[in-house]
Write a structure and sequence with these properties.
Its main location: membrane. It catalyses: ATP + protein L-histidine = ADP + protein N-phospho-L-histidine. Its EC number is 2.7.13.3. Residues 314-367 form the HAMP domain. By secondary structure, the chain is an alpha+beta fold. It has a domain at 392-399 and 467-623: Histidine kinase-like ATPase, C-terminal domain (Heat Shock Protein 90, 2-Layer Sandwich). It has 13 helices and 7 strands. Strand 4 (541-549) and strand 5 (553-560) form a beta hairpin. The longest helix has 112 residues, at 220-331. It is elongated and about 175 Å long.
Length: 640
């Protein structure tokens, strides 16, 4: 009574307590999962932001490097005038523009003072404008040097050289020497601008003018030379002014812009790094808080899990173990009079009621086993019935095949009787000689016809005669020839059969009549497929049967040129009772029984390749050594 009251006390609370306990544990577990996912998502977002900031910092370092490279190429262009550095300066300015655009569109835009980025963009624009002025001045300088100064120098040199003749030619020669000295110092200034060289050029020009002033008889030529010399000096001073102008732009203005650009880039980089450090500290703080929350919830989950386990063990486990032990005994056939837990009004009570039903149904197990045994026997009978069905289908054809040679035998015997009567009663020598040549032919035809009947009857006996069911070495080629002979009337109007049988083929362990049935089913199916394709007047198809010896198997291939098997049907051709033929034409068991005989009984393989409209090929592989050479098959058929 105490047990009954205890069971009644928990009758309505077992599933509730278990469900509530596990629900709480599940909620806590889901909380851990949700917290973990949230933490991972936040960490991933922060990591991505930090990675973007790191990329921006790298971009700023690239920007700083580009500024240095830009300044070097500006100086190189200023002192060399080559087009390569000029193009490189433009490329670096464009690269700086792209880098600034990347910084403005990246996360740094939310971190950096926008006025700094605006100043950097404005500085780059100013740098472009100033460098354009440098390019213009550098071009003007080149024009002055290569065209104006060179032209004036050439005219003055030619005039001085022509005037340097004996007599008063000495001042012209001295003037020419002084002018060449001026030219040399001017070229030195071109390659290395220096105010000392400017004064040296002016002194050489003044000395040249002084020498020309000593000439008294030259007249107009001397005045023209002095004028050319003045123009040369003026052009040189303009070139000096242009050179000083663009060098000032390069060395002072552009250098200052570059330094300012670097300073602004350093400011942006410092702000990004500071923000990245703050983000790292925030990530560490978030990780610590998530870890603490996760540890707390995990601890709560463990505590509640232990409590739920204790509650289940105290209120459920004992009764459940008793009911389980009873079910195990019932499954082993041990009879019991009482099912524990009967009378409970909870889930365990329903389980006990189910055990009672199991106990009540235990007796029916023996009946089911007997039914299974009967079904196995029915399966064996079904296989034999299918074989007899094949025999029945071929019976009319076989009778026709036997009738034809028997009719030949009858006709030849009648002919022999008439001829023998004629020979014995006739006195015509010519008739006797004709009979002597035709009678042996008739005897040979009759003998061949009788042999054909014997072969057909022998093949029929091999297929239908019940015998031993043990595996035995089987002549595969002979089995195939028997199946072809039996089925000849079925295929002769639709196809030609070509046998490609390997001589001295090894004999695998099998039952010849069962293998004969397999080949017969495949040949009949091939003939039906060819007949379906060719209709009534189409050309004859071809059935090719090939045997080959492999390393550990004997392979058989039955290929036909029939209608083929549709792709959607191909996976089901070996299913029992599956057929594409009309009702009453096929039972759908031939290929299923063939598959069972080859795969399940002999441990071989049976598969099919087919292209719809082009025919099909069935491949059989039989192992030379059976899985159990002493196994006894549960099917009767052997050739005797």
């Amino acid at each position: 009574m105490a047990d009954q009251s205890q069971e009644s006390g928990f009758a309505l609370s077992v599933s509730g307590k278990i469900g509530a306990g596990f629900a709480i544990v599940l909620v806590l577990h889901l909380s851990i999962v949700a917290l973990g996912h949230y933490g991972l998502a936040r960490a991933e977002a922060d990591r991505a932001a930090q990675e973007r900031l790191r990329t921006q910092v790298e971009t700023l370092y690239q920007l700083d490097h580009a500024v240095g490279e830009l300044q070097r190429n500006v100086l190189l262009y200023a002192f060399s005038g080559y087009r390569g550095p000029e193009h490189r300066v433009v490329e670096l300015q464009d690269e700086l523009g792209r880098l600034l655009k990347s910084v403005k569109s990246g996360p740094a835009n939310a971190v950096v003072d926008p006025e700094v980025l605006t100043l950097m963009v404005s500085g780059l624009k100013t740098h472009r404008e100033i460098f354009a002025s440098v390019v213009t001045d550098r071009a003007l300088r080149r024009t002055l040097v290569d065209e104006e100064l060179a032209g004036l120098a050439e005219q003055l040199e030619q005039s001085l050289a022509a005037a340097a003749a004996p007599g008063e030619g000495e001042p012209f020669a001295a003037a020419l020497s002084a002018f060449k000295s001026a030219q040399l110092k001017a070229m030195q200034f071109v390659h290395s601008p220096d105010s000392v060289r400017v004064h040296a050029v002016k002194q050489s020009v003044a000395e040249c003018a002084a020498q020309l002033g000593r000439v008294t008889a030259a007249g107009a030529d001397r005045d023209r030379m002095i004028a050319l010399l003045a123009k040369y000096e003026s052009a040189f001073l303009r070139m000096v002014q242009v050179t000083r102008g663009y060098l000032h732009l390069v060395n002072v203005v552009l250098a200052g812009e570059a330094e300012e650009f670097r300073r602004l880039a350093e400011t942006v980089r410092s702000q990004c790094l500071s923000h990245a450090d703050q983000l790292s500290m925030h990530m560490a703080d978030q990780s610590s808080r998530f870890r603490q929350a996760n540890n707390f919830i995990s601890a709560m989950t463990i505590v509640l899990g232990v409590f739920a386990s204790w509650l289940i063990g105290r209120n459920v486990a004992s009764s459940l173990n008793a009911i389980t032990a009873t079910l195990v005994n019932l499954s082993k056939g041990v009879r019991c009079r009482h099912i524990p837990g009967i009378g409970r009004r909870d889930e365990l009570g329903r389980m006990a009621a189910a055990a009672q039903v199991f106990k009540d149904k235990a007796e029916q197990t023996e009946i089911l086993l007997a039914e299974v045994t009967r079904m196995k026997d029915l399966e064996r009978r079904l296989a034999h019935a299918q074989k007899m069905e094949s025999v029945g289908q071929l019976a009319a054809g076989i009778a026709h095949e036997i009738n034809t040679p028997l009719q030949c035998v009858t006709n030849n015997i009648e002919y022999l009787r008439r001829e023998m009567d004629a020979v014995l009663g006739a006195s015509n020598p010519q008739h006797a000689r004709a009979s002597e040549s035709e009678i042996p032919e008739a005897i040979d035809e009759a003998s061949e016809a009788v042999q054909r009947v014997v072969e057909i009857v022998h093949a029929m006996r091999c297929m239908s005669h019940p015998g031993a069911s043990e595996l035995a070495p089987t002549d595969v080629n002979q089995t195939i020839e028997n199946a072809v002979k039996i089925s000849r009337n079925h295929w002769k109007e639709h196809a030609e059969v070509k046998l490609d049988l390997q001589a001295e083929l090894p004999q695998p362990m099998a039952v010849s009549s069962e293998l004969n049935q397999v080949v017969l089913n495949l040949v009949v199916n091939a003939a039906d497929a060819i007949g379906e394709k060719r209709g009534e007047r189409g050309p004859l198809g071809q059935i090719t049967i090939t045997t080959r010896a492999e390393s550990r198997h004997v392979s058989i291939e039955v290929a036909d040129s029939g209608a083929g098997i549709p792709a959607e049907v191909l996976p089901k051709v070996f299913d029992p009772f599956f057929t594409t033929k009309e009702i009453g034409v096929g039972s759908g068991q031939g290929l299923a029984l063939a598959y069972n005989a080859v795969v399940n009984r002999l441990g071989g393989t049976l598969d099919v390749d087919s292209v719809e409209g082009q025919g099909a090929a069935f491949h059989i592989r039989i192992p030379l050594q059976s899985r159990d050479t002493h196994a006894v098959l549960d099917h009767e058929a052997v050739c005797i």
